[in-house]
Amino acid sequence: MSDALDELRSAVWNPDFPLATPPTASQDLGFQVLLEQYKLYVEMTDRMSARRALTNSFFLTINLAALGAVGSLAAKYPADWSEFVAVTGVLALIAECFVWFYTLRSYRQLSKAKYTVIEVLEEKLFSRPYSKGEWGAYVRSGKQGKYFRLTTAEQMMPLIFGISYLAIFFYLWHK
Predict the structure, then answer these.
(1) Range 151-160 contact pairs with CB under 8 angstroms and sequence separation of 24 or more
(2) Which residues pair with 13 in a beta bridge?
(3) What is the mean pLDDT of the chain?
(4) pLDDT at 122
(5) Rounded CA gap, 7 and 37, in Å?
(6) Where are the domains of the chain?
(7) What confidence tens digit (pLDDT) does each residue in 102-153 have?
(8) Distances in Å between the alpha carbon of 1 and those of 5, 85, 94, 131?
């Protein structure tokens, strides 16, 4: 375990900033500004992740509520009308799954850009806990096992729902 911690320490601490050297007043002010920008940017990135989770909950709720509504309406009305309602509902849900999938894809791209900016900002900090620590020393290295991206799992949900809706649609179409 000591070797892993030593490796992590050497990855996290930025060798361009020897901690023993006291900074000048102008360097200290510049560093304080950079540190505040870094903290703000990390907070903004965290908020975006929270919005992504909220978006997933929203789309999941829509899908579950719509499935219940379509099933309820189809059982309540005559066969011709229920098929129309079901087909129309399923087509709308397929379209919604495309929107869900591409919304998650957009969040993934934005997250990647934000984390890249965090890595660049960390180059000017005394330590690099994200870029060289969390991601560099463990996740990217594979030391914790194969990393399965959360965004990949998230994007499976609209695909699963969409494939299910397609199956329902083709069943109703050929009925």
Answers:
(1) 151/104, 151/107, 151/108, 151/111, 154/52, 154/56, 154/104, 155/101, 155/104, 155/105, 155/108, 157/56, 157/59, 157/60, 157/100, 158/59, 158/97, 158/98, 158/100, 158/101, 158/104, 159/97, 159/101
(2) 127
(3) 80
(4) 84
(5) 28
(6) 24-173
(7) 999 999 999 888 888 888 888 888 878 877 777 766 666 666 677 667 778 8
(8) 6, 61, 50, 21
